[in-house]
Amino acid sequence: MGLLTIIRKVKRKEKEMRILMVGLDNAGKTTIVKRINGEDTSRISPTLGFNIKTMQFKRYRLNIWDVGGQKTLRSYWRNYYEQTDGLVWVVDSSDTRRLQDCRDELHGLLKEEKLIGASLLIFANKQDLKGSLNPEEIAKVLDLHVMDKDRHWQILGCSAVTGEGLLDGFNWLVSDIGSRIYMLG
Amino acid sequence: MASDNTEEYDKEMLEKKHAERLERLALINKSRLEEASIRKSQAAETSDPRESVDVFLSAFTQRKESVEKELASALEKKNALEQTLIKEHLDSLALELSAMEKLVADASYFLPAYDVRSSQTAVLKLKDELATASAELIPKKKFSFRSKAAKKQPIPTTAADSTTGEIKDEKQNNGGVSSPSTSPVSKEDSMAVQESNNRERIQGKQNSVFVRDSDVLGAELTLSHLKNCRVYLRGRLTTFYIHGLRNCQIFAGPVTGSVFIDDVEGSTLVLASHQIRIHSTKATDFYLRVRSRPIVEYTTNVRFAPYAFSYPGMQEDLVAANLAEETGLWEKVDDFRWLRAVQSPNWTSLPLKERIPVEDGSSVQGLGCDGL
């Protein structure tokens, strides 16, 4: 009985996931995090630095690192790569002018050795806007088909304003990480 | 008897053992002392004589005194010597002083804190004295006019930025992702606001006034590559992209999402929005109502003031967009290239006297509103 409780305790402690939210500025990273956490999303300042949010999702504790996307901050992203289980790349689907920029940054990120094992969720955000490209179009522009064969990845449309698609995305991400790390599925 | 014998024998043995042990101890002691003395002499040999505090202090005082003496003598016979000689002399003293400064710095790791401090102050005092002496001995040049070399014009960097931006746009168009139906340069006089990719745009125009009226919800707008234009946007927007503006005046109703501004120069932008990001912008005034802190990045010489636009029904639009209250955030600007406690040199708040009056957009007439 003693040993079993210890094992259980350790297991419970282990059920943490470290999730890194990145993407260009104005993509809606902070708004997504606040929305799934049920907070006010109307007073969000552009992120200077980073926010950490810890929340319970299914049987897991998610530590979400929401890192600012301004050009000035992108060189600091690498400081957050260590031990990342899941990567959420947020795209402003309506900002067609900067999609190439977005593609370059994403592919640069995927070359990082520390992120090789991380599951990748791509949120094609702002689907509530009429001018947005749909997830298939985004996938094409971002050249997602050249992705490494071993990478677990998924692209989903979402809207941080309406909340649409956010749960689906996190469901996929958490179960993918869970099946990889804890073999629980 | 036999027992006596054995007793005596034991005693003898004991004494013998005792003596042996004593002898051994003496030997050990002797070798220990020898080793200690060797170590001592070795230490004396290897230890850096410079690391002795006394040695340092005496040397330092000597040099200090000599500098003081030289200075005093230089001041005494200031009229006897030639200017150039005095100057050379003072220069050598300055060199000596910086050498002493270095000496203190080198010695600081073994010197007691008090000695470090007192040596440093001594050097500083000498430097001061040297400075006053040289001011007295070598008079400054009298003011005279000189022809200035013409300053070279710095190469504008944003021009390069904007061209790369355009190239990127073109690439996108070739890829067939977002293809605005007209190229920015051609068809100057054609329909100005057009829906392309479900997005309204005003792009590639010059010297015109545009007015956009809309009560359509969910409107999105892009302004790009405009020169000498005035744009009045009456009504609400959900998202607003602005890039490549030169010498333009933009007056916009409330934006419920974010405004993204890139590469704007010499313009005035009047905006109300939940979020405002300003990139690579120069010499532009912003009149803002905003629900979060506006940010600037790679931006210089921009000024901020409160929102200054009105049109019939604006108040209702502001209320509906959750922007009716003045938050005061228009002057809480974060400069991402200036992460220090002191005020960023890249932006200021606009002095009251220089602010424009509230722009009345109620009766403005302009181009390019068909199709909406």
TrEMBL record, chain A:
Entry keywords, A to Z: GTP-binding, Lipoprotein, Magnesium, Metal-binding, Myristate, Nucleotide-binding
Pfam families: Arf
Protein's UniProt keywords contain GTP-binding: yes
Binding residues annotated for Mg(2+), in chain numbering: 30, 47
GO MF term set: GTP binding
SMART domains per UniProt: ARF, RAB, SAR
InterPro entries found in the cross-reference section: Arl2 (IPR045873), ARL2/3 (IPR044612), P-loop_NTPase (IPR027417), Small_GTP-bd (IPR005225), Small_GTPase_ARF/SAR (IPR006689)
CDD domains registered for this protein in UniProt: Arl2
KW Metal-binding (keyword) present: yes
Signal peptide: none
Superkingdom to which the source organism belongs: Eukaryota
Family: Belongs to the small GTPase superfamily. Arf family.
Name by which UniProt lists this protein: ADP-ribosylation factor-like protein 2
Automatic annotation (TrEMBL), chain B:
Keywords (A to Z) from UniProt: Acetylation, Chaperone, Coiled coil, Cytoplasm
Keyword Coiled coil recorded: yes
The keyword Metal-binding appears for this protein: no
Biased composition (Low complexity): 173-185
Domain of life: Eukaryota
Protein name stated in the entry: C-CAP/cofactor C-like domain-containing protein
Similarity section: Belongs to the TBCC family.
PANTHER family from the UniProt entry: TUBULIN FOLDING COFACTOR C (PTHR15139), TUBULIN-SPECIFIC CHAPERONE C (PTHR15139:SF0)
Region (Disordered): 154-205
Compartments, record wording: Cytoplasm
A GO-annotated cellular component: cytoplasm
Bias kind Polar residues: ranges: 155-165
Source species of the chain: Riccia fluitans
Record Pfam families: TBCC, TBCC_N
Gene3D superfamilies, per the entry: 2.160.20.70, Tubulin Binding Cofactor C, N-terminal domain
Coiled coil: 57-84
Domain C-CAP/cofactor C-like, chain residue ranges per copy: 180-338
Assembly and interaction partners: Supercomplex made of cofactors A to E. Cofactors A and D function by capturing and stabilizing tubulin in a quasi-native conformation. Cofactor E binds to the cofactor D-tubulin complex; interaction with cofactor C then causes the release of tubulin polypeptides that are committed to the native state.
